[in-house]
Amino acid sequence: MITASVPDYREAARRRLPRFLFEYIDGGSYAEQTLRRNVEDLSGLALRQRVLRDVSRLDLSTELFGQRLSLPLALAPIGLAGLNARRGECQAVRAAERTGVPFTLSTVGACPIGEVAAAASQPFWFQLYMIRDRTFMKDLLARAVDAACSALVFTVDMPVPGSRYRDYHTGLAGSGGLKGAAWRVGQAMLRPGWAWDVGLRGRPHTLGNVAPVLQGRTGIEDFFAWMRNNFDPSINWRDLDFIRSEWKGPLIIKGILDPEDAKEAAELGADGIVVSNHGGRQLDGVLSTARALPPIAEAVGDRLTVLADGGIRSGLDVVRMLALGARGVLLGRAWAWALATGGEAGIVKMLNLIEAEMRVAMALTGTTKITEINRTILAGD
Ligand SMILES: Cc1cc2nc3c(=O)[nH]c(=O)nc-3n(C[C@H](O)[C@H](O)[C@H](O)COP(=O)(O)O)c2cc1C
């Protein structure tokens, strides 16, 4: 199949990845209502077609946190994305660089910060979770500083993990020990391309930044157990002081879904927020980001940089999210699927598709610059 869209990459990833990995990426929490609403509420927004406006020159570039970007987007942090292709985060950071957008390395990426920094030639963003062990957090922040990361994305919507049923159905969660491992190996054997690329040639199979605290345990269930036991549910606004004392660069708080929380973030001097429900993977039933974004942008858009993610499956969706008030967006599953399908080149091609789709959406809504995109390009608004 020739991949011509983000949904095509999803289908290609389904055929390439072992089932437990595909479902881990694709799935959401509980009944997956928020996951579905993220996609449907965004794609359901009608665009307003305008004509005869000379759209021969379009400028899709923008500036975020002092960085000039060729497109108003960044690759979102995706835990374990590096398992989708050999040393996956290293391929992703290069793809992002080639396209002129930032890559965000997850705390729980498969490749550690140092390895990604060595693969990169420009600064990338680093995402941090609140972890009980503050010494470990300090160490991670010091590594992010050493790697010259250009922004810190502090994710606040996981004080406790939501349950994802699909992970139980595939043996990724809930079946530890030999049984779970045998189940996953069985699924991997049905995907020889992936088994060869990642299973055999993708070593070491340690778990990125977290490997030092796992003390030699390398199983995927060890990793999930670590997440369950070490993410800090006591996380609160005062913790931002701790982050600020260790991190002087741009600070972006990810996982804001309510205007009151957005105002708090602005009060405390965050440089940006990501309006996000973790791609529908945390509290199922919360608002889609397309619905949550407008009042938040209205409340704090003049005080900090509002980014948004969730359900973006095309360049048209990027334009819709900007129309709702975001200054830029994060792409989540889209890049994970593209990485699984075609590695670095796959992500570059997917981003080129997004750009081409954005160009058409901008041209036919009569906008020639990113700053011209606002609610007036939505029909019925
Ligand atoms: C498989 C997977 C793993 C994720 N891991 C992280 C993570 O480690 N840190 C984080 O802040 N967000 C994580 N997210 C959330 C994404 O950063 C992003 O908010 C979400 O994927 C956006 O929705 P979309 O996938 O519909 O684009 C993850 C999402 C997925 C799908």
TrEMBL record:
Known cofactor(s): FMN
Superkingdom, natural source: Bacteria
Keyword tags: Cell membrane, Flavoprotein, FMN, Membrane, Oxidoreductase
CDD domains according to UniProt: alpha_hydroxyacid_oxid_FMN
FMN hydroxy acid dehydrogenase domain sequence ranges: 1-381
Pfam families, per database record: FMN_dh
Family: Belongs to the FMN-dependent alpha-hydroxy acid dehydrogenase family.
Name of the featured protein: FMN-dependent L-lactate dehydrogenase LldD
Gene (UniProt): lldD
